[in-house]
Structures are given as structure tokens and as C-alpha cells.
């Protein structure tokens, strides 16, 4: 048996990364809905400061030109979680700042209170190239008389 596996035509790595980023969104959404962190939970969230969609104050972008870690523990407010991103306000050197971070920009999520950590591959900053919509043939579905069996015919259109 060969160790040389063919390249997958299905982007499994991207699918898994997207699913794990959804975990971060769900956790932050629970914190938003409940109005705060439960128990001793707190989060370290690392993200790419130059990633598409990241909106942070200029002085933070200059100080952290590649990657930055924020801590959500005691002093944060205005947490708003969306489908693809979250926003939060924090203080840096006594200055209040609002940050907007797409989940795609996150490279690490850690909750040290329960020894939980997720590490992500940085996603490309480029937008995918435009392409035509798929035009797959639609399967023909026929119900059999008097039963719950459904036949699906994936044959070519005639």
C-alpha cells in the first residue's frame, strides 16, 4: 500500500476549520445572551489584525501589525455576535476601544479555566475568484404506489 494519497477534491480542512470557528461563535453568542461569562470562564482570542473585515483602532493595528490576542474576562462590554463576526469593546492603556473581528480572522481560542483550546489555520486574505453557478442535473423522484419507498433516478436528462 502506498503512502502517497491523492489530493482530495473535497476541502475537508476548510470545512473543519469553518465548523470549529462556528464553535467560537456559539460560545460567544451564549455569553452575549446571558450577559456575561459564567463561573471562572475567560477567553484568550488571537486574530490576524490585517485580515479582511477586521476593524480595530489605528494605534492597535500599528502596535500589532500581524496578530493580536485579546482577553475577555472582567472588563469588556458591548459584545455583539453575528453570523460571521463579533464586536466587543475593551480598554487598552485606559482608552476604550471597539473591535470588530470576523471569525475567519481568528487563529486561536482558549478558555484556560477548563483547559479548552482551538487552533486555526489562517485563512487567505483573498476573496475567492468568481465562478459560474453549478448546473447539476436535478434527480428525478418517483414515489412507488402504496408504499413509503421513494426511487431517485440520477440518470442523464433525456
UniProtKB/TrEMBL annotation:
<protein>
    <recommendedName>
        <fullName>Stringent starvation protein B</fullName>
    </recommendedName>
</protein>
<dbReference type="Pfam" id="PF04386">
    <property type="entry name" value="SspB"/>
</dbReference>
<dbReference type="InterPro" id="IPR036760">
    <property type="entry name" value="SspB-like_sf"/>
</dbReference>
<dbReference type="InterPro" id="IPR007481">
    <property type="entry name" value="SspB"/>
</dbReference>
Amino acid at each position: 500500500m502506498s503512502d502517497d494519497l491523492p489530493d482530495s477534491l473535497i476541502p475537508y480542512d476548510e470545512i473543519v476549520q469553518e465548523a470549529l470557528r462556528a464553535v467560537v461563535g456559539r460560545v460567544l453568542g451564549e455569553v452575549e445572551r446571558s450577559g456575561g461569562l459564567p463561573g471562572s470562564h475567560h477567553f484568550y482570542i488571537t486574530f490576524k489584525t490585517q485580515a479582511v473585515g477586521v476593524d480595530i483602532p489605528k494605534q492597535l493595528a500599528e502596535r500589532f501589525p500581524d496578530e493580536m490576542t485579546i482577553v475577555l474576562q472582567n472588563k469588556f462590554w458591548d459584545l455583539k455576535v453575528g453570523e460571521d463576526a463579533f464586536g466587543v469593546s475593551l480598554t487598552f492603556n485606559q482608552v476604550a476601544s471597539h473591535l470588530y473581528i470576523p471569525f475567519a480572522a481568528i487563529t486561536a481560542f482558549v478558555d484556560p479555566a477548563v483547559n479548552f483550546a482551538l487552533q486555526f489555520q489562517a485563512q487567505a486574505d483573498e476573496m475567492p475568484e468568481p465562478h459560474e453557478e453549478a448546473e447539476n442535473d436535478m434527480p428525478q423522484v418517483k414515489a412507488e404506489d402504496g408504499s413509503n419507498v421513494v426511487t431517485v433516478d440520477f440518470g442523464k436528462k433525456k
